[in-house]
Amino acid sequence: NSLITFILMIVLYFLPLETNTFNLAILILVTSGLRGTIVNNGLAILRVKEKVLMTGLIGISATLTTITPILLLINFKTVDSLMAIALGNIIGAITASALVMLFLKDQYIMSFPLNAFKKVFKYSKNLTFHGIFQWGMVSGDRFVLHALMNKNILGGYFVMYQAPLLVHLLFRAINNAILPKFSKASTMNNLKVSHLMDLKQEIKIYIYIIIGLSIISLSIPFIPSLLPVLSQFLGVYNKYLVLIPSLISGALFMALYYLPMNLITITKGETKNISSSTFLALLLGITINFFFLKTFGVRVAAFASMSSFGLLLILILNRAIKQGNYNKLLPLKSI
What we know:
Elements lengths: L1 H13 L4 H31 L1 H25 L5 H23 L10 H35 L2 H36 L6 H27 L3 H4 L1 H7 L9 H24 L6 H23 L2 H23 L14
Helix pairs in contact: 1-2, 1-5, 2-4, 3-4, 3-6, 5-11, 5-12, 6-7, 6-10, 7-10, 10-12, 11-12
C-alpha cells in the first residue's frame, strides 16, 4: 500500500492537473492508503475472531465512503465532484481506521522485524505495479471524464459509480472471508478432498451472489419509472441510470477475478508478471476512451470500465488454468 501510494503521488505530480485537483487526488490517495494499511491488517485479525464485527466495520466504511459524496452532490449543486469523492474517502478511511484500532488496541504491536519485512517485500514488489495499474482501471475513467467532459457529466457518472463501488467493497469483504482457505491449501502437499469440497462450495455461493446482482443491475434503469419518489430524489441524475448495468458488470467481473487471483498469488505463491495482465487491461480502457468518448459520450466510459475488468478476468483466469493441480480449487465451469 505504501509503495503504491508513493509512486502514484509522484505520477500525479507530473500530470497537468489544476492545483485543487492535484491536492484532492493526493488526499484520496493518502486516505485510501491509510484505510488499506490499517483496516486490512485489522480485518486479518478480526476475520479469525470476530466475523460479525469485521462485516460491520466494512459496512460502516463502505456506507460513509459512498453516501457522503452522494448527499453532497445532490444537496449542494456547487460542490466539486472530486471534493465530494475526497471527503467520502477521508471520512470513511478515518472512521474505519479509528474503529479497527479501537477494537484491536490490545493486539497491535509496534515493531519492525527486518527479516519479515524482507520476505514480504520480495513477495509484494511484483504486485506493486499491478496495484498501480489496477488503481488506474478503477479511477482512470473519472480522470478521463474530468479532462474531456464537463463537470456535470463527471458528477452524474460519479453518483452512478457508487453502485459498483459498493459491489467492489462487498466482494472484497467476502473474499477476505474465504482467503484463509486458499492460504491453507498452499500448505497441503496433496489437497484434501474435504477441504477442496468445502472451498468449492463457498466459491459456488460467491458465484450465485454475483448472478443475483447481475439480474438486479439490469433492472435498475427501469426502477424510477416504477418508483416516482426515487425519480424525484435523483432529479437530474436520472438520465445517468443507463450507465449502471455496464458499471456493475465491470464490478462483477472484478469480483470473479479475485478467485483465480487468490489461486495464483495465495495458494501457488506466484507474483511474477502479474502486472503485465493488469497493464493490458488498463491500456484497453484508455484506448476505448481516447478514440470514442468524445464521439459517443459518457456511456463509452462505462463500457471501457466494463471491458477493462472483463479482459483482466480473462487473462488472470487463463493463467490460473495453467497452474496444474492447483486449478482443482476453482470450479472453472461455474466461473
